[in-house]
Specification:
This protein has 136 residues and is of the alpha+beta class. Helices cover 30% and strands 29% of the residues. A hairpin with a 6-residue loop joins strand 6 (119-123) and strand 7 (130-134).
Length: 136
């Protein structure tokens, strides 16, 4: 079972989207993909680096009008770090983030892993609600 973490950038974007009616499927998308897929399945998506041990991945979920997720997968440690999410359509939708933003997120997640400045994401007993616990 993969351990799932996120940095502040993801948590802020996720909570903002979840609060909007037009994006309220985001929690279900996160649970169904990140909490239920194998490490091998999680590797599918566009690789933004050339690492096979720690791929940095951009993945679209929810179809063409869905969401784009950016995450780092550390296969040996069975850890996944969600870095950012944005909708593809709607009032706050966008096609992509800039290359500078992708580089910033990658550097930031590596720093957050080193300083343990991230959140552990878990599911409640029903398996339908996410919770975030600040790492110590």
């Amino acid at each position: 079972m993969m351990n799932i973490f996120c940095i502040d950038d993801f948590k802020v974007a996720f909570e903002k989207l979840k609060s909007k009616k037009s994006y309220n499927t985001i929690e279900k998308e996160v649970i169904n993909y990140f909490f239920k897929e194998t490490a091998q399945d999680l590797c599918s998506g566009t690789r933004l680096n050339h690492s096979s041990d720690s791929p940095y991945i951009k993945k679209r979920l929810g179809g063409s009008g869905g969401f784009r997720f950016y995450f780092l997968l550390i296969i040996k440690k069975e850890a996944l770090y969600l870095m950012f999410v944005h909708p593809k359509t709607g009032a706050i939708g966008s096609d992509n983030i800039t290359d500078e933003s992708k580089a910033y997120l990658y550097k930031k997640v590596l720093g957050c892993i080193n300083t343990k400045d991230f959140y552990k994401m878990t599911l409640d007993k029903t398996g339908k609600k996410l919770s975030f616990e600040k790492s110590k």
